[in-house]
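Structure tokens please, single chain.
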Amino acid sequence: MNHPMAVAQRLVGILLMLFSTTMLIPALVSLLYRDGEADTFFISFCVTLAAGIVTWLPVRAVRRELKLRDGFLVVVLFWMVLSLFGAIPLHLSSMPALSITDAVYESVSGLTTTGATVIIGLDGLPRGILIWRQLLQWLGGMGVIVLAVAVLPMLGVGGMQLYRAETPGPIKDSKLTPRIRETARALWMIYVGLTLLCALFFWLAGMTAFDAVSHAFTTVSTAGFSTHDASMGYFDSALIEGIAVVFMFIGAVNFALHFVAWRSASPMHYLRDPEFRGWALLALGVTIACTLALLAAGTYTQPGNALIKSAFQVMSIGTTTGFTTADFTLWPSFIPMMLILGSIVGGCGGSTTSGIKVARFMLLIKQGVREVNRQVHPSAEMPVKLGGRVIPDPVIQAVWGYFSIYMGVYAVVFMILMAIGMDEISAFSAVAACLNNLGPGLGEVASNMATVPDIGKWALSLAMLMGRLEILPLLVILTPAFWRR
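Here you go.
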């Protein structure tokens, strides 16, 4: 059997078996803290491993060169299947005792690094459940597929097509090292190194070892889950907020840039990258505007306090992380909306963030300016440039196509939420929070998504998956042309 579905089935089986091993980590944590949830994770491990074996066995002998079309199918199937199996411990656990809908929503939110939770009472949850939520986000941050690409070649499976289907942004068609396995390993070495460094700084700043590791998982991955209902505000520490700002910023930068800068031991590669410069200037400008607005409104009277609160919230929302240290929904009204709209832009391509990405945003602006100038000089040649390079028109068209599809998906999910009874502000921000993999919203979803009806949670779960996969891979496999031989 050499049908594309057989190839996808074999890979999903292998990846499920690999994923099952991650459930042993929270099982060990549960044993260490004696929270009573070790059996939950052991059962989940057995179920996931068995499902992987059953999926893999019938097609274990299938051998065919992996094509890009197969890559799209495997990536979409795996993220959907992964979300379902990631929900098993959350559903089986007596705390927080989630329904199937809520467990799947929480799992999708974790793996897509959204950070929008339906759980109330995080401070009292078993440590095993808490670390599982954080681990899901950490795995989703760089992309489980990229991790698998580093391992699959040893199992006789090529990985470049998976890498191209999974990895968004500028590094989609380029390899940092000659072999794709080495590329994936290089990215993960950087990712793991940054996580360990972040955990060390959090611990030195006063967090417990458990909280330091947990929050390092979700800071570097720009994800946003916390082990406390008050999020980062629980620690009430300007130093911890400052450390989080630095590592959220690092997580929002193209990891290809991190690799090149590390390999050459020169930070100049960052400054030469137009997307990095655009992202840094945007973050700085919004932070200054937010700080001045908070001081003018009297929300904070000390400039230093206003600056750290602004910088943290701007970086948290702008990188689609979603941590909070203050109830920013009570700030002057234009600030929360400005931050939510800013999450649509997100961070750099090839980073752990979501949103439409800074490079696309810059090209949209440049194309808009070009169209205005064309009204004055209709016959003039006006190439769009980014970083001194002329951007081909097909790329510009692809960006516009992506943006139009993004807005269409946004409108559809927004209308679904309105139809089930949510108010305009809550519905608008809930879609932004999920499609941009952000987390917090406004109105009734400012603190959590527990009040959203089940139909809305399924719609938002799909929006989170589309946001994580940058919409197109999911839509591609739904087209009749994809299934034609």
